[in-house]
Amino acid sequence: MTAVTHFRYEIVRTFRNRVFYAVTLALPLVLFYAVASGQRSATFDGITFPLYFMTAMAVYGAMFAAVSPGARIARDRAGGWTRQQRITPLRAGTDIAAKVITAYLIALPSVVLVFLAGASLGVRLNATQWLELGGLLLVGLTPFIALGITLGYLVATDALTPAIGGVVILFSLVGGVYGFQLAHSGPLFDVMKAIPSYWLVQAGKTAFGGGGWPAQGWIVIAAWTAAGVVAATFAYRRSAARG
Amino acid sequence: MVHHSAEAGGIVLSGLSKSYGQVRAVRSIDLTIAPGETVALLGPNGAGKTTTIDMMLGLTHPDAGTVSVFGRPPAAAVRAGWVGGMLQTGSLLEHLKVRELVSLMASYYPHPLAVADVLRLTGADEFAGQLTTKLSGGQAQRVRFASALIGDPDLLVLDEPTAGIDVAGRHEFWQAMREVAGRGKTVLFATHYLEEADAYADRIVLIAHGQVIADGPATEIKARAGARMIRATLPGVQLAVLGALPGVVSADRHGDAVLLSCSDADTALRALLGAFPAARDIEVRGGSLEEAFLELTADDEMDSAATAGAMAQGGTR
Questions:
Q1: Which of A2, A12, A87 would you mutate first to test chain B, the one with the most B CBs within 10 A?
Q2: pLDDT by residue (tens digit) across B163-206?
Q3: Which of A16, A76, A88 is the best mutation test for B, with the most CBs of B within 10 A?
Q4: In this model, does residue B6 exceed pLDDT 50?
Q5: Which of A131, A143, A183, B263 could anchor a disulfide with A228, C-beta 3.0 to 4.6 Å?
Q6: Do A86 and B92 touch (CB under 8 A)?
Q7: What number is the average pLDDT over the span B221-241?
Q8: Is the pLDDT of residue B296 over 70?
Q9: Percent of chain B clearing pLDDT 70 (strictly above)
Q10: Residue B217's pLDDT band (boundaries 50, 70, 90)?
């Protein structure tokens, strides 16, 4: 018995869903060009607008990629395959690891494509800055993967699309993904700084300046990741207990 | 090939119970299946077959009672790869071809069979390159069967395996099933077709209203299910006495009426009238399987225990 075969077919399965994959890759690109091409020389939040919005759209695509395993979990659950899988020796941990791997495998090309689009509109970073930006995005994605898995085990299939879409849109809005920020000071700003998508969007400025997130950013990402893992474990157990 | 697990005893269900809200889906089922036996769980829809199977597989936790699969709890037996199952509902995994799906299932087990062999045995080789979402109902059922077999499990549990398959497909399915059972596997299948249970099981467990109401070799259950029934008004006579009359398999009471299930109705009627001349309103009729179910499981709470007792005496086990 080997987990490699399971990983392999989970990946095959994901990439055969071509429409989903195409939309996940195309949506942030289209939005990026539509919004940023007219504001190439603008500045926003202390950096050039294209750098800000490139990061924001990379976060947008990556968040959709991160929660997408939740949709597969919900479909397999509704179709009854989850029950079939539970009467095989496959460990739940192996299955969830496969879901996490596929989330990153979808997120990575999405992020790279948006970076290329950014470069085409004049975003200039050195190699270290590009790598740091990409690294921060992938790390900051983890709580969203956990969130997607939680929703997949918790929410019924027909409610899942609005649930996942709603969660991504809400986190995007609060995090500043749409190219504006809800607040720059005060209590609402404090709330924003407690949300992982805010720190993901800030990764552009952080990488440009060098030196990584401030401690608060790391704490927020770590806390949401921990909470997400606890929630996903709870959701999985609840779903398993209901047969 | 039968693995070492088969030596650790068979399948033992004891005092198994499960309720969903007010519905008592399974009421204290006791059942022992010896290694290598093929057993049919026969009963009408809603009898508790699927709930019983789900508890055997560890998918559902019983409210009371225990399940032992070759000496281990179901979850441990499943993890060891001793169990293969074909569940009643369920679409197949999307975006995979049939051969890929069966290969994926094979990868979960410690000693799987060759994918090509299982595809051939189940007839799934004809469409092995198709996506699972493009299959007909009968084809999907073969893939499910292949998925259950691929791990070479010692215990095969099949919940209404021929549902949705046409007549020719059924025949092929049972031929393949026979070949598998012939390798010493322990097989439990649920069905509501008496003919299937009769033709393919060593033993039939008749289940209704969440209880085992008869348990024995196929021939015997078939005779009982197809037996003639005598109904008579006869107050104040012990069911045990009636059950002991020649030709009577079991006795049940509904108010003043008694209901005798007979292996030989002529002999039973003579004996009844000889012993109890007061019996009146006498009816003799053939019982269909459905009628047998209804009669055996009529909701007379006071008599249901007596019925179960009489049935247990009537059985060979």
A1: A87
A2: 878 888 888 899 988 888 888 899 999 988 877 888 889 999 98
A3: A88
A4: no
A5: A143
A6: no
A7: 79
A8: no
A9: 85
A10: confident
User: Which residue do the tokens 């071509």 mark?
Assistant: A18
Residue B310 CA to residue A50 CA, distance in Å, equals 84
User: Cβ contacts (< 8 Å) between A75 and chain B: which residues?
Assistant: 94
Complex ipTM, two decimals? 0.88
Mention every residue, 6+ apart, whose C-beta is less than 8 A from residue B76: none
Write out chain B residues lying below 8 Å of A81, CB-based: 90-93
Neighbours of B15 (CB within 10 A): 12
Q: Which SS3 state, helix, strand or coil, does residue B18 take?
A: strand
Q: Which token pair is B104?
A: 């994926």
Residues of B in contact with A20 (CB under 8 A): none
Distance CA A161, CA A164 (A): 5
Residue A79: which of B91, B110, B144 has the nearest Cβ?
B91
| Residue A178, H or E segment | none
List every span in chain B annotated with CATH 3.30.70: 227-314
Structural fold of domain B227-314: Alpha-Beta Plaits (3.30.70)
Place of tokens 């996490």: A100
Distance CA A98, CA A84 (A): 17
Identify the CA nearest to B31 among candidates B54, B52, B60.
B52
Contact B59 A83 (CB under 8 A): yes
B287: confidence class by pLDDT, cuts 50, 70, 90: low
Nearest by CB to residue A87, choosing from B59, B61, B91, is B59
**At residue B130, does pLDDT exceed 70?**
yes
Higher pLDDT, A235 or B304: A235
Residue pointed to by tokens 């989330």: A103
C-alpha to C-alpha distance for B176 and B245, rounded to whole angstroms:
43
- Give start-end residues of each CATH 3.40.50.300 domain in chain B: 4-220
- pLDDT profile of chain A (243 residues), mean per 10: 88 91 94 94 92 96 94 89 93 93 94 97 94 95 96 91 93 94 92 96 91 93 96 91 73
Substitution target from B91, B132, B150, B160 for chain A, most A beta carbons within 10 A: B91
| Side-by-side strand order, sheet with B64-69 | B23-33, B11-20, B64-69
Residues in chain B closer than 8 A to A243 (CB atoms): 54, 59-60
Considering only alpha carbons, which residue of chain A is nearest residue B54? A243
State residue A182's pLDDT score: 92
Q: Do A83 and B61 make contact, defined as CB atoms within 8 angstroms?
A: no
Q: Report how far residue B105's alpha carbon sits from residue A178's, in angstroms, rounded to the nearest whole number.
A: 43
Cβ of B87 within 8 Å of Cβ of A1? The answer is no
The continuous run of DSSP H or E covering A59 comes out as helix A49-79
Q: Indicate the pairing of strand B83-86 with strand B64-69.
A: unpaired
Q: What architecture is the B4-220 domain classified under in CATH? A: 3-Layer(aba) Sandwich (3.40)
pLDDT in the model for residue B168: 84
More confident residue, A42 or B292: A42
